[in-house]
Amino acid sequence: MAIALDYQDCAPAVRTNRGRLLAWLRGLLPLWRSSDPAWDAVIAKKDDRLLQDIGLTRREALGTNGYFWHEWSRTREPWSL
End-to-end CA distance of the chain, in Å? Predict the structure, then answer.
């Protein structure tokens, strides 16, 4: 079975989809959380007492992706007392 592609016909479709994707991403930029130094300091602490005081778990505070990377880096960190 052979498949023939005409790259001249594909190029405008790719540009159109790329343009829609870029427009969609630009719409999401205002929703991106800006970095807050005070919040980053609370998250950087190894103790979760401050988070518990405001009723959050570390997983809720970091979000799904943040919690994954936090746990990943925690396992890579040398063991310290």
Answer: 64
Q: Give 58's contacts (C-beta < 8 A, 6+ positions apart).
A: 43, 48, 51, 67, 70
Residue reference for tokens 């009723």: 55
With tokens 């396992």, the residue in question is 75
pTM: 0.47
Q: What is the pLDDT of residues 20-51, one digit of tens each?
A: 877 777 777 666 666 778 888 888 888 889 88
Rounded CA separation 49/56 (Å): 10
Residues in Cβ contact with 48 at an 8 Å cutoff, skipping those fewer than 6 apart: 57, 58
* Cβ-Cβ contacts under 8 Å for 50 (sequence gap 6 or more): 42
Own/partner pairs, 56-65, CB within 8 angstroms, 24+ separation:
none
